[in-house]
Amino acid sequence: MDLPAAARPDWSAIDTVLLDLDGTLLDLAFDNYIWLGRVPEIFAERHGLSLAETHAQLAPRFRRVAGTLEWYSIDYWSRELGIDIEAVHNEEAARVAWLPGARGFLERIRESGKRLVLLTNSHPAILQIKHRQTGVLDYLDSAYTSHGFGAPKEDPRFWQTAQATVGFDPQRSLFADDSAAVLHAAIRAGIGHVYGVRRPDSSRDPHAHEEFESIDGVSELLDGL
After folding, report:
1. What is the CATH number of the domain that holds 160?
2. Quick one: 87 and 107 in the same domain?
3. What is the reported pLDDT for 225?
């Protein structure tokens, strides 16, 4: 799907490209398989529960910390659930995959001379597992995690720290992410060009993202570069 002309980024007005990882560059199908599939299966087996009983127990625990740093912390969930979450990711690492067109997008942006910066809520240990499978960090100028900044991307403190650390001009920066809450936070932080990814998980139906300029995948942003 091509972006309409009015929605295409004006690349002459953009110096820095800020990118999410999971659901923007890498297929969120991996993470959804881990958290909606393997983790509940392991929990159910260890506690003698059905999957339905397990989901009923886990859902309120997930909701309680959604949007906080704990939500993204494998250390927190390993303690809470009694499961080695990093080990589960390692066991299933072969499932890690690029989203369609994402690697080519990074190559084109690098050739254009724009700065490429990863801003992710992914835990550093999980980021390294995904890098070992894909080499994603090799395509970027720098990468920062919410755990390193002490606040998730949904929190204004993340963006304050990111700007101070990276040194980007918000109005001359483009940001792409699949999370509506994070996209709203980026807009509140003054990011000038914000895009919502409609197809973060290749195995699931697309998101709507009606309140943002939206794309099926980041390769659509190359129009006009």
Report:
1. 3.40.50.1000
2. no
3. 86
